Amino acid sequence: MLDFESRNVPASVALAGMIGLAKAAFEGLFGVLGIAVASSVDDSFGTGALIFGIVYAIASILLLRGSRFGYYLTVALSTLGLVGSVVYMFSSKGTVFGGTLLIALLNALVLYLLVGRKSVRDFFGLGAGANP
User: Fold this and answer.
1) How many CA atoms lie within 13 A of 28 on its CB side?
2) pTM for this one?
3) What integer pLDDT is reported at residue 41 of this predicted model?
């Protein structure tokens, strides 16, 4: 069980981790659907989405536990997700564009919460006075 109060986890880290777990479940579900029922996409897309979702879930759990590796992995996966969704937005239209925009905004929010907040950098020992 994740006990936020005993470790003084900043609200930004907790929120980023919860968004990450929700995104992981969402992308894992898309991966399973891509493998099982979508004839319009290749099985490798579904497998890739499922693996991405599993790795994102692991990174989010590590992030919530205060792991610096989880921090770096979540930042890297959110950056990859943001870049991928922005690129995909240019080739999508209609409701797919809306879904892609939502994913891009969630990735940007996670990046802001993790990289743009001083309390998060201090929590992971990345602040100005930290000893790496």
Assistant:
1) 12
2) 0.80
3) 57
